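Page 47, continued from p. 46.
Same chain as before, 230 aa.
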Amino acid sequence: MNKTIKIAVDGHSSCGKSTLAKDLAKYFDFLYIDTGAMYRAVTLFAIRKGVFKNDKENYELLLKNLSEINIEFKQTSKDKTEIYLNGENVEYEIRNLEVSSKVSPIATVPEVRTLLVDLQRKMSENKSVVMDGRDIGTVVFPNAEVKLFVTADVETRAKRRFDELKQKNIDVDYESIFKNITERDFIDQNREVSPLKMAEDAILIDNSKLTIKQQLDLAVKIIKEKIYEN
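Result:
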């Protein structure tokens, strides 16, 4: 393959798109960029800065400090890349429920989206990339060679998220996760800037009843057909 390829994987919260994107990057030996982790890192930064102090959002405080944010992905083992915020590995801290409950509002801030979209494009220059998020096929890479839109029903997504956090010994309850996912769906789909929507030329993958391997096999088949078609 002589040219670089961009694969955009968009979809709802907790639908397994990150798992799919990682598996695809490994299969094709492409760079994987987890944009959701980037928004989570900014959210963690905002929490630490006191943007949500006393349950009131002070987004002006975040905007004043945006220039302090430095986000990198570093390979921590042969098959693992983790996210660093200002030199600190925050891969696990950004997955807690507090960050999950505040990431969608942070993602509606236009200046945050501009900052991260620019960074995502720079990270991807002259590289074949698999990138997952909410607006990859519509905003970040509107000309991506392959666009996938991943979804699953809310109950399935909540159960998967619950099981994932339990395996990491994070104390959560199913009802809170279900509520969080439902709220994030609403915010993501209704925000003014880069709302979550399926690109017209994206291919839908509903993985509600698919195993991880079945999802990967289906996506690989789609991608190979699209690449060779072009």
